Amino acid sequence: MRIGLLTEGGYPYVGGEGGVWCDRLVRGLDRHEFDVYAFSAGQAQEDAGWVELPPQVTRVRTAPLWTAEEDGVAYGRRARRRFTEHYGELAASLCTAAGPGTAEADRFASALHGLAELSRDEGGLVAALRSEQAVRALERACRTPGARRAAREARVPDLLTVADHLERALRPLSLDWYEEDGLGAVDLCHAASGGAAALPGLLAHHFFGVPLLVTEYGVRLRTHYLTRPDATPAVRSLLAAFHGLLTAETYRTASYLVPGDAHARRWQERCGADRAKLRTIHPGMDAAPFARVGEDRPGDRDQRERADPHTLVWIGRVEPAKDLVSLLHAFAEIRATEPGTRLRMVGRPSGPEGDAYRGHCRALAAQLFPDEAGGPHAVGRNPVSFEELGGPGAETVADVHAGGTVTVLSSVVEGFPHGLVEAMFCGRATVSTDVGAVVEVIGGTGLVVPPRNPRALAEACVSLLRDPERRARLGGAARARALELFSVEQNVTAYRGLYLETVARTPVRRPVLDGTGEPLPFAAPAEAHVPGRWTEPTPRAVPTWAVETPEPVTEPVR
Fold it and tell me: By the 8 A CB rule, do 108 and 158 touch?
């Protein structure tokens, strides 16, 4: 079948968010064709270029969400009236929104489709969305009787901020992707995330009836709820209403919603998703780079030489959400009972905030653990090391895990813990905090403690450091679990089945015609979407009783 893959800031760009799993999915489904429709996140991403694309990617169309040039479209009187009507309805739904499943959700969907149809008829919406006419329509909606209090209190700066955000969010409506030879030609739209990436899928379903599948490894609506903490109540209220209604329309339209774990699934349900549409598919990760470490048996000589039985490993992005301060305090208690233990902290800071946080952690480590020397003439050494991937002994993630026996995760906020899965592929015992999808990923193959509890974290680590047999048993079970649940193969197989299930439940949109131009009923069964010799429609078989010279039903008497 032909898949329209919709991405935002990810595939096919180098280093894009979610680009790795999209690339693995496309390469794994080599019997399907993929048309990629991608939004870029910035000029730097566009300058970095694309990853190498496999032959099954037949088309790539991109558009920037971070900028939009004036389209030069001048509306006539009738078009301006249509814009005012639909934009006013959309603004009114934001000012009175009561949640998904309400009349305001239908009002929002109708206005969104109306703006899309206007853009398709007139050639774009960019100039109209930036016009004073849009701001005035938003102001009228906020001043309408029945509007919520936060909307009524919106001032001119608030209205300008919201109007600017709506213009950015609605830029996908102005694209020329919604034609018969564009998204109208695909059998299925697969949005790699919610939000802007799913918006072209909504319009493809509206214009052509193309089924939509949405994957959310991180729920975008939750992210929007946590952003703009310094905005005024009016701005936060109106933008939360917009993203809430857009998410509700996405969830209503999608044939299936794919969370990556139970944590994301619960968030989708809280945001109004229908449980009957939810299909959990864990992210697929490549186990091959970790086979060298993970397949070593605990008694092997190479394993003993590489792994230090007194070394704890933490690996990830350095940022406050990882709660490295609690880890350092826990390590202080570990050192009190196991003096020879070392802690390797491997990772790069995430932006300026991460740089400052790493500096704070370095200072805390120096305070808690003064450099220790083995003798009066030896150079002191701190038991805590701060490293980055690519350095000595940390050339790869597998090398980092090979140098220790217990992997620690101390986060207070976590989605799907990819770093923990890598440790499981390496056959390492783990100690983790109970956040996000950690318990779902670990199962019974590791120790889990409450977050922000250094004492519990220390006790769990000490129990594993003192029990090599238990470490080996948990590490082996962790590797087996990771290979079964989190491999690329299971991810690709699950999506292959879901693609076929989605198309099988979708009515045929392009009827097969006979020689006279009349449609042939039942001429394109669901299995016709599966590549193979049966994909070409065949003429209807003529029943034997309708043949001019009927065949005898019994053998002639000799």
Answer: no
Measured CA to CA, the distance from residue 502 to residue 318 in angstroms comes to 40
The dihedrals phi and psi of 479, each to the nearest 5 degrees, come to -65, -45
Q: Where are the alpha helices (DSSP H) in 341-467?
A: 351-368, 397-402, 418-425, 438-442, 454-465
Name the 3-class secondary structure at 230. Answer: coil
C-alpha–C-alpha distance, residues 496 and 490, integer Å:
10
Q: Greater confidence, 343 or 391? A: 343
Determine the Cα–Cα distance for residues 272 and 259; give it in Å rounded to an integer: 14
Contacts of range 382-388, beta carbons closer than 8 Å, 24 or more positions apart: 383/331, 383/335, 383/341, 383/342, 383/343, 384/328, 384/331, 384/342, 384/343, 384/345, 385/342, 385/343, 385/344, 385/345, 386/345, 386/358, 386/361, 386/362, 387/344, 387/345, 387/346, 388/346, 388/347, 388/348
CA neighbor of 383 nearest in space, from 399, 400, 366, 396: 366
Q: What is the residue whose two structure tokens read 């934009």?
A: 87
Please write the tens of the pLDDT for every residue from 451-505. Answer: 999 999 999 999 999 999 999 999 999 999 999 999 999 999 999 999 999 998 8
pTM of structure:
0.84
Cβ(91)–Cβ(146) under 8 Å? no
217-to-22, 106, 242, 261, 480 alpha-carbon distances in Å: 12, 27, 21, 7, 23
CA 315, CA 307: separation in Å to the nearest integer? 16
Tokens of residue 412, six digits: 């207070």
Q: Is the pLDDT of residue 208 over 50?
A: yes
470-503 per-residue burial string, b: 16 or more CB within 10 A, e: under 16: ebbebbbbbbebbbebbbbeebbebbeebbbebb
Which two structure tokens, joined as six digits, stand for 79? 């078009």
Bridge partners (DSSP) listed for residue 50? 13
Q: How many CA atoms lie within 13 A of 204 on its CB side?
A: 32
Residue 178 bridge partners (DSSP): none
Question: Alpha-carbon Rg of the chain, whole angstroms?
Answer: 29
**Helical residues (DSSP H) of 101-212, grouped into ranges:** 103-122, 126-129, 132-143, 149-152, 156-169, 199-208
Mean pLDDT throughout 62-72? 83
- Predicted confidence (pLDDT) per residue in 312-332, tens digit: 999 999 999 999 999 999 999
Amino acid identity, position 332: A
In sign, the C-alpha dihedral spanning 241, 242, 245, 248 is negative
Question: Per this entry, what is the length of the chain?
Answer: 558
